[in-house]
Here is the input.
Amino acid sequence: MVSSDAVPGGRDDDRVVEFDDESPVLPEQTRDDTDRGWGERSWSNDDRLRDERPPHWD
Here is the structure.
């Protein structure tokens, strides 16, 4: 067992911890949990439909 004197920075009790109620500890959604994280386009479906509009509609 290592004594608290041997640990750089001292004991954890000496550290000041500020709790911010507005910030979640874990995010609601991770980057991998999004379409962009899976390599999908970040733009909306409307933009895709406009780009793929059939030529006879013009």
About this structure: The first helix runs from residue 45 to 51. DSSP finds one helix and no strands in the chain.
